[in-house]
Amino acid sequence: MNEIKLFCPASVANVSCGFDVLGFCLEPIGDEMVIRKTSKKGIHIIKIEGQKLPLETQKNVAGVAALALLEDHPCNYGFEIEIYKGIKAGSGIGSSAASSAGAVFGINELMGKPLSRNELIKYAMKGEKLASGSAHADNVSPVLLGGFTLVRCSKTPDIIALPFPSELYATVIHPKIELRTSDARAVLKKKIYLDKAIEQWGNLAALVSGLYTNNFDSIKNSLVDVIIEPHRSALIPGFQELKKVAIESGALGCGISGSGPSVFALSKGHKTALEVQNGMNNTYKKFNIEYELHLSRINPKGIQIISSK
Ligand code: HSE
Question: For residue 165, how far is the Cα from the chain centroid?
Fold first, then answer.
């Protein structure tokens, strides 16, 4: 195989109570990437469409992730990368994760698959580090593994794929303002109170339990964020209104997608998710901000190969 074309999906990180540790993969939104072998060694980003991003390998998230992979697994040829962005940078639905994960996934395929999808996560995290200053794995993991994932430890890294009920649907609204992850991380407190930590890890454990047992009451009760949301929600115009209408429309829960400004809601069943989408639409029309709405199943597959030759 000399060339591969990929679909690299968007993702929702944190999922309310799981800051930096929980994430899930979305279905309809994503980037496409073409990666091909070249006789010239190294990584060469030759085209980016849909977004103004640096072509220099060292300044591009896909470039640094790919370089990290090649450093551990050198080969006597190089790679050209074309990126067709469908996900806006700074949207909160894993734009840098899609590019970073896509680069290492595609190169691994062209090298004859020496590594598993799970083993690629630590290289994709290098792209996240470049984008936000923090090597979090909660977006790249669901992009590479599909479904819901839990980061037990980001240093190793140790990533666990979680089961999830098939009736779970996500509604995501993307207000078209850019919120950089580094800025959204800068507003966070470095120390937290013990009572808040207890509440948060109780909810996280209950959410994971609910995903395993298809217990929608448990999922509903635990989609709460008492640590991060109070600080970040002020950065998202209309967040409280969106959350109110999502819950009133029947969502199990609603929170900030990753570092924002996108906002996600999870619902049981397509019908409810559609009602949530309509509610969010009617509410956000009144704000003077352009936005996009997406309704998605939880994508069980993650990155997909569109074609190869
Ligand atoms: N967990 C990260 C954060 C995700 O919330 O900062 C960034 O997309």
Answer: 19
pLDDT in tens, 213-236: 999 999 999 999 999 999 999 999
Judge residue 169's burial from the number of C-beta atoms within 10 Å of its C-beta, 0-12 exposed, 13-18 middle, 19 or more buried: buried
Confidence (pTM): 0.97
CATH 3.30.230.10 matches 3-162+299-308: yes
Identity of the residue numbered 126: K
Catalytic residue IDs: 128, 181
What is the domain partition of the chain in residue ranges? 3-162+299-308, 168-297
144: its two tokens? 């590479």
Task: Let me know: does 146 contact 301? Beta carbons within 8 Å.
Answer: yes
CATH of domain 168-297: 3.30.70.890
Q: Ligand 1: which of 143, 259, 263, 264 to mutate, most ligand atoms within 8 Å of CB?
A: 259
